[in-house]
Each structure stands twice: as C-alpha cells, then as structure tokens.
Design goal:
By secondary structure, the chain is mostly helical. It is built from 14 helices and no strands. It has one domain.
Length: about 300
C-alpha cells in the first residue's frame, strides 16, 4: 500500500516540464495567494480609495478578525478552493489510470483489486492534506509577511491553538471527502463531464439546496413529501458541502451548538467530524464496491 502511495506521489510531483499535476495545482493556488495579498497591499498603499477603505472592506469580509477567519475567506468563501484542487486532482489521476491502461496493469500486478482501490482513498487523504497545508501556509504566511507586518495590522482576535488545529483538521477531512465522493461515479460512467459535474454540484452545495427546496415545497406543490419533510431538512444538514460552508465561520464557533435540523444541539465540531467520517466511509465503500464489479 505504501509503495503505491509513493508511486502516485512520484507521478504527480515530476518537476521536469511540470508534468506532475501537483505542481500545476500548486502554481494555481500560489497565484491565488499572491493575487489576494497583492490586492490587499495595493489597497493599503492607496488603491481602492486609500487604506481606510481597504481596511473597512477587509473587516466586512472578516479577514482581520482571526487567523482562521482570514483563511476561511480565501480557502472556502462561496466555494472551496482547496476542495476544488483536491477533487479535480484525484479525479484526473483516476481518468489517466483508466485511459492509459496503468490501472489495469497495476491491478493485475498487485495481490488483489482491493489494494489499488483502497490505496486511491488513502492517497486522496495525503493529497488533500498537502494542499490544505500548502495553501494555508502561502495565504496566511504571505499575508503576515507582506501585509500585516509592513502596515502594522493585527488580528482583532486570536484562535486558541487547539481550535485552530481542529479547524484545519476538519478542513482537511472535508476536502478529502469531497475528493472521494465522485470516484465511484467516475469508474461506473467513464465520463469526465459527469464526474466533473458531480464535483461542482457537491462543492456548490446543490444537493442540500435541492433537499431543502423539496422539504419547503412539501406544504405546497409537493404535498406528497410532507411526511418526510423533516427528514429531508435533517439530511441536508449532513452533507459534505454543508460542512464546507460551515468552515467559513472560522474556528470560533466550533464548540457552540451546530443549531441545524437533525444535529440535535451537537457541538459544531462533532457534527462536522461525524458528517465527514460518514461520507468518507460511504464514498470509499461505493468506490471499492464499484471496483469489484467494473473493470479498470
């Protein structure tokens, strides 16, 4: 298993000609970090109407409240940059394995099909961790070095060490889940458009919105759904995209009650952790089950 993970990392980190997709995604994330820092410096240097305006805009975006709230603005926002990088990176690798015959060769040379499919899930975890750490370091470190220190800015609040670590762990888990969810669909359909569409649907939260719409319509045009309306609302709370959206509030609210349908006043962190683990198990099981039935 570890040999396969090392092999995948070797393929994805080939530096010559930037043929490894890791460097391609890393450059995009680095570019986003440079852009955000450059815009902040430009505003503080007199652009956008002067420093006062850019500071007010920053406060409106919550970027100066705490380190985790600064990160959530750029890592997640209305959609998750990290989850996009991890999901598309993993699904691209799977399609390469399917189209060039590498996966079939690997499956025939290992002790069983399960090894290959289980390894992909574990590799997705290391892949997600790498990008969560990389973009977090680039974004927060660059902001501190090139904006906060030169212009004398400070965060108005600091996260606790435990809360900040827990928030980052949940961010990693949520992006890992998002990268595993489309794997079974990709294998079964062999269609990039369908797989990419599922990724976009998950990351933009279309499924929870659909469930909520069905629940709220149960008293009107969809009366037949009225008996299960509370279940639909509860199910919408236990979705990976709902966790990704909740991460945008930073580490400050992790220990407060989640306060959503079906969470039964669970602490936010435990609900997020439970949701991630449930979907990681379900998505991994679907991927492995599909692999047992479908040729690579």
């Amino acid at each position: 298993m570890l040999r396969l993970i090392r092999s995948d990392w070797y393929r994805e980190t080939r530096i010559r000609g930037l043929r490894g997709s890791f460097w391609q995604y890393a450059l995009v994330l680095a570019g986003i970090a440079v852009l955000e820092i450059g815009l902040m410096r430009f505003g503080l240097s007199g652009g956008f109407g002067g420093a006062a305006n850019i500071i007010n805009m920053a406060e409106d975006m919550d970027v100066l409240l705490s380190p985790s709230e600064y990160l959530d603005t750029f890592l997640f926002g209305s959609y998750s940059i990290i989850a996009f990088a991890t999901s598309f990176g993993i699904i691209d690798q799977v399609f390469v394995d399917l189209t060039d015959g590498f996966g079939k060769t690997l499956v025939s040379s290992t002790r069983g099909r399960l090894t290959y499919f289980a390894e992909k899930v574990l590799f997705a975890g290391t892949w997600s961790a790498a990008f969560t750490l990389l973009f977090g370091a680039l974004s927060l470190g660059g902001f501190a070095l090139f904006v906060m220190i030169p212009f004398g800015l400070t965060f108005s609040a600091l996260d606790s060490i435990g809360g900040f670590i827990l928030w980052n762990l949940l961010a990693w888990l949520a992006s890992w889940v998002a990268s595993v969810v489309p794997l079974a669909v990709a294998l079964l359909t062999r269609n990039k458009l369908v797989a990419y569409g599922l990724i976009i649907g998950v990351l933009f939260g279309w499924i929870p919105l659909l469930l909520q719409g069905m629940a709220y319509s149960a008293g009107g045009i969809l009366k037949v759904l009225q008996p299960i309306a509370p279940a639909l609302l509860a199910l919408s709370s236990w979705m990976p995209s709902t966790v990704l959206h909740t991460l945008t509030y930073g580490a400050g609210g992790l220990f407060a009650a989640a306060g959503m349908p079906g969470t039964d006043a669970l602490p936010t962190w435990s609900w997020m952790l439970g949701t991630c683990l449930i979907w990681l198990i379900l998505a991994s099981g679907a991927w492995i089950a599909a692999g047992r039935k479908r040729g690579v």
